[in-house]
Specification:
The protein is mainly alpha-helical. The chain has one domain. The chain has 5 helices and 2 strands. A two-stranded antiparallel sheet has the order 1-2. α1 packs across α5. The N and C termini lie far apart (35 Å).
Length: 109
C-alpha cells in the first residue's frame, strides 16, 4: 500500500500547505494524496475525472484499496510509494527543492 508521511501536505501550523494545492492544480495527470492510514486526503481534477466522481469531496475518506480493482491490488502493492520520511535527509531536501521550484514556476505563469 502507498503511504504518506502523517503530516504530508501540511504546513508547520497543521493547515494544508498551499504549495500542495498548486502542484495538484498544475498536474495534468491524475494525482491522489493519501494519509499513512490509506485514507484519501486530496486529489486533482484529473483524478476526479478518471474516477468518474463529481468532486474530491465525493472521493474523500475512501481508502486506497477502494480505487484499485481487487484483481490488481497485489500488482499495485509492488509499486507502492515510500513515505517521504523513509528517504534520507539529502533526498528529502532535494525533493523539497523540486516541489518548491515547481510551485514557484507555476505561480509565475
Amino acid at each position: 500500500m502507498s503511504e504518506a508521511a502523517p503530516n504530508a501536505g501540511k504546513n508547520a501550523s497543521g493547515g494544508r500547505d498551499p504549495r500542495l494545492k498548486v502542484l495538484l492544480a498544475a498536474a495534468s495527470d491524475p494525482v491522489m494524496v493519501f494519509a499513512s492510514d490509506g485514507k484519501l486526503l486530496d486529489a486533482n481534477p484529473a483524478a476526479v475525472e478518471v474516477m468518474e466522481a463529481e468532486s474530491v469531496a465525493e472521493m474523500r475518506d475512501r481508502q486506497l484499496e477502494d480505487f484499485i480493482a481487487a484483481e490488481d491490488q497485489s500488482v499495485a502493492a509492488q509499486y507502492a510509494v515510500k513515505p517521504l520520511n523513509d528517504y534520507s535527509l539529502p533526498m528529502r531536501k532535494k525533493l523539497a527543492q523540486i516541489f518548491s521550484d515547481l510551485a514557484a514556476a507555476h505561480t509565475q505563469q
